[in-house]
Amino acid sequence: MTASPKTFHVKSFGCQMNVYDGERISELMAAQGMTATGEAGDADLIVLNTCHIRERATEKVYSDIGRLRKHARKQGRGPMIAIAGCVAQAQGDEIARRAGVDVVVGPQAYHHLPALVARAARGGLGIDMDMPGLAKFAALPARRKVGPTAFLTVQEGCDKFCTYCVVPYTRGAEISRPWTTLVDEAKALVDAGAREITLLGQNVNAWRQGDRDLGALIRELDHIPGLARIRYTTSHPNDMTQGLIDAHAHVEKLMPFLHLPVQSGNDRVLKAMNRSHSRDSYLRILDRVRAARPDIALSGDFIVGFPQETEAEFADTLSLIDAVGYAQAYSFKYSPRPGTPAADMAGQMPAEVMDDRLQRLQASLNRDQAAFNAATVGRTCRVLIERKGKLPGQLIGKSPWLQSVHLTSEAKIGALVQVDLIRADPNSMAGAVGMSAAA
Ligand code: 5AD
Ligand code: SF4
């Protein structure tokens, strides 16, 4: 085994919660005096922060480990390999046995990584798959420097048990971080450079403290000077409280964007998925959201080819998409996850049927995304500059509706710039800097 690693590289897969965890892991290792490398191949310690939600995630982890080892052997080095994230939580013991990795750590235990790495450096196996709830947050170092957009995890876990989903098993029960901690952390993020905060949670709108809901928290964060924008993701329809909907009407900093997964437009399928909302109740929620914030951009998640889904049931999903007009959305072929109820259901769909349905669904979503973007041409809005583009003088930022906007300007990263949206390109908007640069 290698001696104590001096350099590290974190590779995150999957959802924004994992991106957040990956950032916190990097900060943690940096606080130990280690240096991040740009390439995994150059690091003494490689952390694979894995995702278990779809596809053959475990197979992918094995092949990644194999590839990393081969590359390392070529260079005559043997990096330490740590498996973190949801695959570690779901299959850590097997991975440790089969793949011969050095460290296995679950999503609620990664604050112990330094100790686990130290154990591995002494030749042992560092393994921790405990689920101690929120313990890691208190143990992680404070964030001193962040970019213009920062994540803040307010809630973890899920109690919904949709029949296709592993999250309740890998991330544990729903649990909300306390109000004062969150307000303090949000202020610290703004002091560290954030202009936009995205509140994160597997079921972010299930955040509660006593009778306060996510809407109340957002109204509190609204008062933080220097914070310009608030977003949140991902939400469940059943947790869309009136308080949160009202926040969309009253809190100017809350951006007009809502990611509200629906998965299917057919009631029988929704029931089999244990979604506990119907097509109609979902559409009625969107009506209320639109009444509060007429220009809101809507996003969703869809699964095609759930066991026994008929062509007529799939057609209901297409008609729901037509009815909503999403600004963007994510869509997936159903993937049986070991240990979930749907994996054992009769009527698993053939791959060709799933491929065909996914193609048709995505054609609808692409059509609506193009229509949404086209409809914003001619609007003036503020764009938060996030990074430089490839061309000289080009900057890339986000519109309030989460579109990527490309523009040419002298503005600094982190500036909010008044922009005219002048053209919809296939994957972004073209913007021109208007007469007045806003603060
Ligand atoms: N198969 C396909 N898609 C899934 N998702 C979750 N579990 C599965 C699965 N087993 C999708 C859902 C969810 C998103 C994060 O991933 O659409 O909203
Ligand atoms: Fe998975 Fe359903 Fe929970 Fe979302 S709400 S994380 S899909 S179980």
In short, what is this structure?
The protein is an alpha/beta fold.
Features:
Rossmann fold, binds 5'-deoxyadenosine, globular, five-stranded mixed barrel, 439 residues, 3 domains, binds iron/sulfur cluster, 22% strand, six-stranded parallel beta sheet, OB fold (Dihydrolipoamide Acetyltransferase, E2P)
Biggest sheet strand order reads: 2-1-3-4-5-6
**Rg value:** 22 Å
Number of helices: 13
CATH class annotation of the largest domain: Alpha Beta
Biggest sheet record: 6 strands, parallel
* Corresponding CATH superfamily of the largest domain: tm_1862 like domain
Q: Spell out which ligands are present.
A: 5'-deoxyadenosine, iron/sulfur cluster
Number of domains: 3
Give the integer mean of the pLDDT values. 94
Unreliable stretches: none
Task: Give the overall silhouette.
Answer: globular
Number of strands: 21
Describe the model:
The termini are far apart. The relative contact order is 0.08. The longest helix is centred in the last third of the chain and has 26 residues, at 351-376. Helix 4 links the parallel strand 5 and strand 6 (126-128). This protein has 3 domains: 7-128, Rossmann fold; 135-376, tm_1862 like domain (pyruvate-formate lyase- activating enzyme, Alpha-Beta Horseshoe); 380-438, Nucleic acid-binding proteins (OB fold (Dihydrolipoamide Acetyltransferase, E2P), Beta Barrel), CATH 2.40.50. It has 439 residues and is α/β, with parallel strands linked by helices. It has 13 helices and 21 strands. The mean pLDDT is 94. Helix 2 (57-74) packs across helix 3. The structure holds 5'-deoxyadenosine (5AD) and iron/sulfur cluster. Iron/sulfur cluster is lined by residues 158, 160-162, 165, 167-168, 202-203, 236.
